[in-house]
Write a structure and sequence with these properties.
single chain, about 290 residues, alpha/beta, 6-stranded mixed beta sheet
Length: about 290
């Protein structure tokens, strides 16, 4: 579930930010500088205004870089591509790939929420979880107007160059393949978090707002790394490593960039911040 929430949130209670840490870093060389912000893909209206460090990084940057092409994600063509990959087309169905016990647990969860699991029987497990997570998050007042969309809109209006680290097609492949080969574990893992999504959401967002790296790792990464190493590798580690050459290239230019990616990509020994430090770059929290 936390792996899927990387696409849905990435981490707020109303917590004072006076003298607090932040989820924005700055990486430097002798001649270049790059800001890196851990983002929240979905927010509630009550979660605004955003921490001031995000505006400071944005205002100081000439180029804005997101995980993927956000404008492309809004197009009907992208939604059609996603739907085309979201369903089983080889004769498999959800009730066939899940054990009877796991399917029953999922069915009970849906029934308690007056949902009919049978209507989702051709959906792949990751898309079932995504659908259920969105329903639960909307109950909390969460909308799709997260940090990424806010700053994409700003950059578009300000005519700042916008770049991305991976293609929308790569995100579709990742999203639709989550849980492949370990469908029971993925669903059971997700159900545990779905049942506690309100508490989890608040903890993640509170940790994000004050830049609490240890809490972000604990609530968002640690369990996945320990119990689902394959999912952890494909969702976080591999993508972080794929991004590193691009990030290093940005540090070779004279322009200042603001890189914005899901907060879970920045924490832990496999996170982007740790990798940049290992390569010898000076990286510190924006103050």
């Amino acid at each position: 579930m936390k792996a899927l929430l990387l696409f849905l949130i990435s981490f707020i209670l109303i917590v004072s930010t006076v003298s607090a840490e932040t989820s924005v870093w700055v990486a430097k060389t002798d001649s270049s500088k790059m800001y890196i912000g851990g983002t929240i893909h979905l927010l509630r209206e009550s979660d605004y205004p955003l921490p001031v460090e995000f505006d400071r990084a944005y205002d100081s940057s000439e180029i804005v870089v997101f995980e993927t092409d956000i404008a492309e994600l809004q197009k009907p063509e992208f939604q059609q591509k996603l739907l085309a990959k979201a369903f089983y087309t080889d004769g498999r169905t959800l009730d066939k790939v899940l054990s009877p016990e796991t399917y029953q647990a999922l069915d009970s969860f849906c029934t308690e929420r007056t949902l009919t699991l049978a209507t989702m029987n051709q959906l792949k497990p990751s898309l079932v979880v995504w659908t259920l997570a969105m329903i639960e998050l909307k109950k909390l007042g969460v909308t799709e107007q997260g940090i990424d969309l806010v700053y994409h809109g700003k950059a578009t209006m300000d005519q700042k160059p916008i770049e991305d680290l991976e293609s929308p097609d790569e995100q579709i492949r990742l999203l639709t393949s989550m849980g492949d080969g370990e469908e029971d574990g993925f669903i059971n893992y997700s159900l545990r978090d779905l049942k506690n999504i309100s508490e989890l959401f608040d903890k993640l967002l509170a940790a994000w707002k004050i830049g609490d790296e240890q809490a972000l790792f604990k609530y968002f990464v640690e369990e996945m790394k320990r119990d689902y190493p394959v999912l952890y590798k494909t969702t976080l580690v591999d993508r972080n490593m794929n991004w590193m050459p691009q990030l290093e290239q940005h540090l070779l230019t004279t322009e200042t960039e603001f890189i914005m990616v899901g907060s879970a990509h920045l924490v832990g020994e496999d996170g982007v911040i740790a990798q940049l430090k290992k390569l010898g770059y000076e990286v510190e929290k924006l103050k």
